[in-house]
Amino acid sequence: MTSKRRRLAAVVISAAITMAGLTAAAPAAPADPADAVRTVSYHGYRVQVPADWRVVDLEQHPTACIRFDTPAVYLGTAGAEPDCPAGLKGRTEGLHIEPLTRMTSATARELKDAKSRNSEIRLAVEDAGVLVTAAHTTATERHVRQVLGTARISDDAKPKKAIPSAPLATPQAVGPQPGDFTGKGFDACTAPSQGAMDAWLAGSPYRAVGVYISGGWRACAQPNLTASWVSNQTAKGWRLIPLDVGLQAPCTSFSSRMSSDPGTARSQGANAANGSISAAQSLGIPAGSALYSDIEGYASNASCKAAVLSYLSGWTEALHAGGYLSGVYSSASSGIRDAASEYDNPAYTRVDHIHFAWWNGAADTNTGSYVPANMWANHQRIHQYMGEVTETYGGVSINIDRNYLDVGAGSPPTPSKYWVDTFADAPVFASPTSTSQTGTLYKATNYVYCKAWGREIRDGAGNYNHWWLKTDPDVGPANQYVSAYYLSRWG
Hints:
Radius of gyration: 23 Å
Structural class: alpha/beta
Distance between the termini: 68 Å
Low-confidence stretches: 1-29, 104-108
Helix content: 10-25%
């Protein structure tokens, strides 16, 4: 048998869903592997990390917040009540190394085969009995993989197998979220523990909670956010506000920004929506729920506004195609005001809900001069009226942002069927961004019933199209997408 001092074969676990809320700190640039390093050891798992990464022992500091807005290594199991500021924002890179417990859906792979999901790589290192979660951005993924590649196992490590459990049906939320609700809510950087949620249910005025389910720019780790957590909270009467924090406005200094090109931004929004749908489904948050894109405040100008509204159009179109409602969280003075200024502009697809930050202390959905009262007036508003305050109920303190909701379940717009002509047999796909053909729509007059922005189809003569149409093809499953490139006549 080879020595334990070898490069690690690992079991890859599906990526955990994490959350983040929001403060401004520009993420650091990835460190050069040639820079000064130090060795961090936990349960016989030894890895070299940049010398300037913080190392936090969670056993000694059980209330420490696992946050990746600055590079760090966290050792041990997350505490039940971490002290996470509600306003954390952004992601750099870092590791969380904890004891390995019974895992589900484990797949044995080498590190080189490990997939990143929601900007995380998770490895079950059986030779040391530890689970390693590596958080990263697009810019830092390569460096994080290099760090993971330095890992070795010491002779005193105690192996533990990651035993795969039989697949179970995903627990489901009690209906679409947030559904029909009027009242107070809060959001926090990381989903509170079950004990904290129970204490706040008994003693607080809040009945809704914002959770960051997806997006590559989340700062906080999320050890509690699972399908069981979602099912348990909604069964007890909590409403959820599912949030995605990803690409930000191009006119900001944030490290993760959408393209200033409207077409590219629209495609990025669609990609973000598809990722958020996948995260929602894995958490048991059903179709009919509203998913909110978190776009932080920005100093608006014409080009920035066009990019943001194009991104939100792609976001909305893809969510509608997946059966979800769309929402946007932003500052009332920037993203929300921009959306209102183009409320009836057919060049953009309007979001279904607005979630606006205006810290005026008023628990209502009045948007003042930012948005006319007749816009998003049918139970389509959430007001974040106070930020980054610590409240205590039942002996449990959480740093939160306060929200007031007036929302209705609603439903995505019913697609209208209309007829088009295709000039050639056309391949169809499961989504506007997919590259795996699922069937064929024959050259003929065909019906389509949904339009969404997606990947570009281009020919050698320079003809191209980004629009995709949902249809029932002649060959393959129903509800597939065909590129509008193949149309010779619109209905």
